[in-house]
Amino acid sequence: MIKKFFTKRRIVLIIFYFVLGVVISAFCLFAKNPFTASSTKEALQYWSDITIVTAVLEYGLVGLSYCSHQGAFDGLSYSLKYILAKIFPMPRLDEEVSGTYADYKEIRKSKRKPIPIEGLFSATVFLIIAIVCYILYTTM
After folding, report:
1. What is the 3-state secondary structure (H, E, C) of the chain?
2. What span, in angstroms and rounded, lies between the C-alpha atoms of 25 and 135?
3. N or C terminus: which one in the chain shows less Cβ crowding within 10 Å?
4. Could you tell me the residue ranges of all domains in the chain?
């Protein structure tokens, strides 16, 4: 049986990443306001800058998520949980860090989820918009 790629969860995550991209773009609008541009060429340059920043930040978030899913931050999370468990005794934290780091790493490996690739769709759309705006800017 072929597994569906666009499940409800994936569609919700894709929409989340698009909304995140729009929010990042809105913050970039405060820095560069393309609506006050004196010409269309200048406005296209602003829109290209805004969308490339959004694409790069989203690609960075996806890269960090990939590293996290591969276990790059397990040592940091173990040490922080260990320190917090010693300072603030909580049963859940004490149970997580009661064993060695190797035990913790095995538990984390069994709980890993698949790598989220939904952010790549949104980042690629913003990158394509940036490229189109840049091409239009250079041809004017």
Report:
1. CCCCCCCHHHHHHHHHHHHHHHHHHHHHHHHCCHHHCCCHHHHHHHHHHHHHHHHHHHHHHHHHHHHHHCCCCHHHHHHHHHHHHHHCCCHHHHHHCCCCHHHHHHHHHHHCCCCCCHHHHHHHHHHHHHHHHHHHHHHC
2. 20
3. N
4. 8-31+39-71+115-140, 72-111
Give the CA distances from residue 3 to residues 6, 7, 110, in Å, rounded to whole numbers and listed in that order: 9, 9, 22
Mean of the per-residue pLDDT values for the chain?
86
Angle, helices 74-87/101-111, rounded to nearest 10 degrees: 120
Burial letters 87-110, b for 16+ CB under 10 A, else e? eeeeeebeebbeeeeeebeeeeee
Q: In this structure, what token pair is assigned to residue 48?
A: 């290209």
pLDDT digits (tens, 9 = 90+) for 41-50: 888 888 898 9
Longest dimension (CA), the chain: 65
Q: Write down the pLDDT at residue 81.
A: 85
What integer pLDDT is reported at residue 1 of this predicted model?
52
In which band, very low, low, confident or very high, does the pLDDT at 74 lie, cut at 50, 70 and 90?
confident
